[in-house]
Amino acid sequence: MSTHVTIRNLFILAATFVASAQVAAAQEPVHTFQQLQVGVGQAIVVKPNQGRTATWSVVSIVGDQLQVERRRWNFRIERKTFTEQTAARIDLHDSTLDGTLKGAGVGLAGALIIAQTCQDLVCVLPFILSLSMGAPIGGAIDEAINRTIYSAGQPARVTFVPLLGQNRIGLTARLQLGAHR
Fold it and tell me: How far apart are CA 87 and CA 51, in angstroms?
């Protein structure tokens, strides 16, 4: 096969991967519990100011208190209440099925490209790896990416100011990081 065909196939694979990637919603995280848009029973990942990050199920939101629960390894239910002062960040935990399916599709596309471009026994291992590892890698990547829905403190701001003078034209940028409680 010519290098033109190989480059074209790699480009098609890359375009397929990019097209299947979901663009994160342009929604900013909220900074108060009253603004949270989560339902009872929804899975969330809470990163407290102190302690370990964990996945919880929403029980209720009342005022500035978020009540959650999770099932422990010994089948006991652990309940906890977070306040705006104790929660640093909350992420929405989504299903990994879509990432697993996308990974399987990318793995299948890679295997098809390998099968078309290489007719040697050396390509058997990459072919098998591409087929078998696409779905688990896609699921693992999707598991690691969750949308932040709450962030303590104020958001970061960027301000641009034009600089105009007699012999100069420019732009000044100011980055103001949010203050945490």
Answer: 10
Q: Which of 101, 96, 94 is nearest to 55 (CA)?
A: 94
Q: Return the C-alpha torsion angle 96, 156, 30, 33, nearest 10.
A: 110
Amino acid code (one letter) for 47: K
Please give the single-letter amino acid code of residue 16. Answer: T
pLDDT tens profile 115-130? 999 888 888 999 999 9
Cα separation of 27 and 148, whole Å? Answer: 9
The pair of structure tokens assigned to 35 is 């603004």
Amino acid symbol at 138: G
Burial of residue 82 (CB within 10 Å: 0-12, 13-18, 19+) is: buried
As a whole number of angstroms, the distance between CA 46 and CA 67 comes to 11
For 6-46, write each residue's pLDDT tens digit: 666 666 655 555 554 444 334 688 988 989 889 999 999 99
Termini Cα distance of the chain: 61
